[in-house]
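Input record, target 12 of the design panel.
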């Protein structure tokens, strides 16, 4: 049972393909089910403190895992009961049922237990749960002290994160072999509780992964303010937004931050204020340029964004600037770019699109030629080369004005010293989430920007 940081994320089709490759290489389906069930049982033993367990088994392989879990727990001396929704359909699941020596109650007649294990429906569910089934699961979960979902809570679309009748917020979800998009995409992620990953021997692609905490270099004796990363922030109509982005870049570790645009000197005094000009934006020492926070959307600002696009700098394009460009314009510009849209900005730039949030972000990265950070309660980061990173759920307290400006500055600080734009975006998103965690409850964006100092120090 492992934390999810860095774990692979597979769709239902990708998981089946990975299992098929394992079988083609000589793996036995029964052995894999036993390994999965026994790994789940070991995790349940750690979590349940010896309490009685009720395992709900469905008709597919998820139910087969459930029967293996029940048999393993019973062999270990646990008091365990099974309730099933129909008889197993597949050969391997039927074998698992045959190896369970206890009785099997029907789901509607099942009596509750302190620990509920949901092995009804896992991977690939594409229709809503029957209302009667959903009601029975809710009844049993409401009476349990601990609820555990095997692979996925029943009633969740594994690929999109949509709810298909799931109304329960589980305490723990045990992901088998790899994480699934629904473990990280809303609204499903909020129903999974604490997600832990169980390695069952399936080899997964590295293309889509959960964020890892970044490791950032400490300054050495040859370090100075420019080689530690110079960030420029274009000041817009709403000066506070760009000043938040600049403060965030400073606290996130940039060695030199310049706010480009007329501004009355004020704290922080370390922030350099320069007149906005093409010469200032083209400063060759600059490692990243931020345009968009609080910018405004008139024709003058559209022209200003075009001027920023003409520079050779790596760009962070945020906020209003995302309403003043087209994907084709960005793709033609080329170079290193990171776009940081929330849902409204994403739709304005790319349209509503189809598929999951991962699919849409992936398509947007290809269309724009940029790394796209599709932020929100779930954040997806995609690069044009098909790499995708998913952020674990961050603090709900981030739903405040200015938090996106802070994120843009944090990403820019990383981009100024990082060659790989996906790595820079991922590091900025992780540190932004960690700063929110350090702030606790009820903070403002200024607090968040300051907390980036501690988040940065933790990565060094």
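The sequence produced for target 12 reads:
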């Amino acid at each position: 049972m492992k934390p999810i940081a860095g774990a692979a994320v597979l769709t239902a089709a990708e998981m089946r393909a990975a299992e098929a490759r394992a079988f083609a290489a000589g793996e036995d389906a029964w052995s894999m089910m036993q390994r999965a069930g026994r790994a789940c049982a070991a995790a349940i033993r750690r979590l349940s403190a010896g309490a009685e367990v009720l395992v709900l088994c469905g008709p597919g392989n998820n139910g087969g895992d459930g029967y293996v879990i029940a048999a393993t727990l019973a062999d270990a001396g646990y008091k365990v009961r099974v309730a099933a929704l129909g008889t197993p359909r597949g050969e391997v699941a039927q074998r698992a049922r045959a190896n369970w020596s206890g009785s099997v109650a029907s789901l509607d007649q099942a009596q509750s237990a302190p620990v509920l294990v949901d092995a009804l429906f896992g991977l690939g569910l594409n229709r809503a749960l029957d209302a009667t089934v959903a009601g029975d699961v809710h009844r049993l979960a409401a009476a349990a002290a601990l609820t555990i979902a095997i692979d996925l809570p029943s009633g969740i679309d594994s690929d999109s994160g949509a709810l298909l009748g799931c109304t329960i917020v589980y305490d723990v979800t045990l992901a088998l072999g790899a994480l699934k998009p629904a473990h990280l995409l809303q609204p499903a992620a909020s129903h999974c509780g604490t997600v832990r990953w169980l390695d069952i021997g399936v080899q997964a692609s590295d293309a889509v992964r959960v964020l890892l905490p970044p490791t950032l270099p400490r300054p050495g004796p040859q370090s100075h303010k420019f080689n530690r990363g110079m960030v420029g922030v274009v000041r817009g109509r709403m000066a506070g937004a760009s000043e938040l982005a600049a403060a965030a870049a400073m606290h996130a570790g940039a060695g030199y931050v310049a706010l480009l645009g007329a501004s009355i000197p004020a704290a922080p005094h370390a922030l350099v204020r320069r007149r906005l000009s093409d010469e200032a934006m083209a400063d060759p020492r600059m490692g990243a340029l931020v345009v968009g926070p609080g910018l405004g959307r008139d024709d003058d600002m559209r022209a200003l964004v075009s001027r920023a696009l003409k520079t050779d700098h790596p760009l962070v394009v945020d906020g209003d600037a995302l309403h003043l460009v087209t994907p084709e314009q960005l793709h033609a510009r080329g170079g290193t770019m990171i776009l940081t849209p929330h849902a409204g900005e994403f739709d304005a730039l790319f349209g509503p699109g189809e598929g999951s949030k991962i699919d849409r972000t992936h398509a947007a990265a290809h269309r724009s030629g940029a790394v796209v950070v599709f932020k929100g309660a779930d954040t997806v980061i995609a690069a044009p080369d098909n790499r995708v990173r998913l952020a674990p759920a961050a603090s709900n307290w981030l739903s405040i004005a200015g938090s996106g400006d802070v994120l843009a500055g944090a990403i820019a600080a990383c981009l100024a010293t990082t060659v790989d734009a996906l790595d820079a975006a991922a590091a900025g998103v992780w540190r932004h989430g960690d700063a929110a965690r350090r702030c606790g409850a009820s903070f403002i964006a200024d607090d968040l920007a300051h907390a980036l100092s501690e988040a940065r120090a933790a990565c060094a």
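The two ends are 27 Å apart (CA to CA).
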